[in-house]
Amino acid sequence: MRVNKEQQELLDEVYKKYQSQTMFRTDDLVSLEELDGMCLGTGEIKKVYRQYAPKEFINKCKTDSEFSQKWGLKIEEQTILEQVDQNNPMLKGSTALYPRKLITITYNDKTIESYE
Questions:
Q1: Cα–Cα 20 to 30 A to 14, which of 4, 36, 56, 95?
Q2: What is the pTM of this model?
């Protein structure tokens, strides 16, 4: 997913909020990634938790509506078909459509759209 500068700043803002609110917290395991870990002293396998990396966080917001809602970040990607510029003489009379991806990011009631 390619985003514009304004969208990236918005993503950075919400990720920093996520980092600060989940750092050193064990009471909000829904916001953390669960992994299998091993106790070095006993060799016992047990669950460990870590924060999502930025790309993982974004993907989690795109694919998990509950997680997305918790952090107030909504990311939508949709492919739309656009008609070729009819003013181009080489394409005159053409009805060709080409796909473009519309990326919509919403956070704190601010929505930014861009095309990829």
A1: 36
A2: 0.76
